[in-house]
């Protein structure tokens, strides 16, 4: 259902006003055109995609007038252009109040505790760090456990992902879903199902072609190059990464891995629930010690330490043949 419900897009836009003495309200936002959304444009774009894009038709996407109306405030129902309810507006004035209490929406309400954020006239924020959770440093051991368990179960590939509802870049509807304004008709998708095996093209090659086209709209998009660069980098890591062990201990580690395989499965399940969980049994402690001997390495990934070392070695290898370059 498009547009999505109001809860799905809550606090998805943040606007910060600084150096202004006037209070920011819903009425004042009506004068800032970059912050306004057009109901007719949203309705037209969704209707066009539902009627002309095969990926949207096959997914049975429907336009919801109710969801569209819920994106805006009730008092703006008669207006064609209005600010979204999902927009979060904050005002930083530099004195007394950090956030105006009468601002129509904010993540912080002015209270007596605001005085704790001021030291000698300066605004100070406390330093906060997050170490627990799925994306913490501790989850690295969990990911290593899951990957090794996958290998020991003789599976054909390692599937590295977070969560279960993300859209894969290998999905043909990836481009139309993330960038409907760039692939309105659903004909330029990555891994398009209409292509023959002989016509298969990699995501990297297709992205380069999109960016090198004359007057390419993909180049002018503010997020497409950034997102696709991360997609290509992630695929490079997945395709050029492996586990390594010293050659002298390879056979020993291989034999011990098979012995502790049941404990790896239990530890993977335990660390999935709590990344800080400690090994309990003797077999689990042995599995953790064994994991520390297994190193994760990657090759041919631009920006990685190994890639920089390889390029440095290439330069050093050319010095005896071409001599030391003159630097100006």
What can you tell me about this protein's structure?
- 12% of the residues are buried.
- The N and C termini lie far apart (60 Å).
- The protein is extended.
- It has helices at 26-29, 39-52, 54-58, 65-70, 139-152, 174-178, 203-212, 217-220, 224-239, 250-259, 261-273, 282-291, 305-322, and strands spanning 13-18, 37-38, 81-82, 87-92, 118-119, 122-123, 241-244, 295-298.
- It contains 13 helices and eight strands.
- The chain has a domain at 6-123.
- With 328 residues, it is mainly alpha-helical.
- A two-stranded parallel sheet has the order 1-4.
- Pfam families: DUF6570 (PF20209).
- It comes from Coniophora puteana (strain RWD-64-598) (Brown rot fungus).
- This is DUF6570 domain-containing protein.
Number of E-type strands: 8
- The SSE order reads EHEHHHEEEEHHHHHEHHHEH
Helix content: 25-40%
Low-confidence stretches: 95-114, 123-138, 158-164
Q: What is the distance, rounded to the nearest whole angstrom, between the alpha carbons of the first and last residues?
A: 60 Å
The major pleated sheet works out as: 2 strands, parallel
Strand content: 5-15%
Shape: extended
Average pLDDT rating:
74
Structural class: mainly alpha
């Amino acid at each position: 259902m498009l547009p999505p419900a109001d809860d799905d897009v809550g606090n998805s836009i943040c606007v910060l006003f600084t150096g202004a003495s006037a209070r920011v309200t819903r009425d004042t936002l009506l004068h800032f055109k970059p912050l306004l959304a057009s109901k007719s444009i949203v309705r037209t774009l969704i209707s066009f995609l539902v009627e002309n894009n095969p990926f949207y038709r096959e997914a049975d996407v429907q336009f919801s007038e109710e969801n569209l109306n819920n994106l805006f405030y009730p008092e703006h129902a008669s207006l064609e252009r209005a600010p979204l309810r999902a927009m979060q507006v904050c005002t930083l004035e530099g004195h007394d109040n950090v956030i105006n209490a009468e601002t129509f929406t904010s993540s912080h309400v002015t209270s007596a505790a605001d005085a704790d954020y001021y030291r000698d006239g300066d605004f100070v924020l406390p330093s906060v760090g997050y170490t627990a959770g799925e994306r913490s440093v501790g989850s690295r051991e969990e990911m290593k456990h899951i990957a090794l368990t996958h290998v020991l179960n003789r599976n054909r590939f390692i599937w590295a992902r977070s969560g279960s509802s993300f859209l894969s870049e290998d999905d043909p509807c990836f481009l139309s879903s993330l960038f409907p304004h760039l692939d309105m008709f659903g004909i330029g998708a990555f891994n398009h199902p209409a292509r023959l095996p002989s016509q298969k093209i990699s995501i990297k090659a297709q992205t380069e072609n999109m960016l090198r086209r004359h007057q390419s709209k993909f180049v002018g998009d503010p997020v497409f190059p950034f997102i696709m660069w991360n997609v290509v980098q992630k695929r490079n890591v997945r395709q050029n990464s492996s586990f390594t062990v010293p050659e002298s201990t390879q056979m020993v580690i291989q034999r011990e891995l098979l012995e502790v395989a049941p404990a790896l499965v239990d530890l993977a399940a335990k660390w999935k629930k709590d990344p800080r969980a400690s090994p309990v049994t003797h077999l689990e402690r042995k599995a953790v010690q064994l994991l520390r001997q297994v190193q994760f390495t990657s090759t041919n990934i631009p920006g990685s330490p190994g890639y920089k070392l390889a390029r440095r070695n290439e330069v050093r290898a050319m010095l005896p043949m071409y001599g030391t370059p003159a630097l100006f």
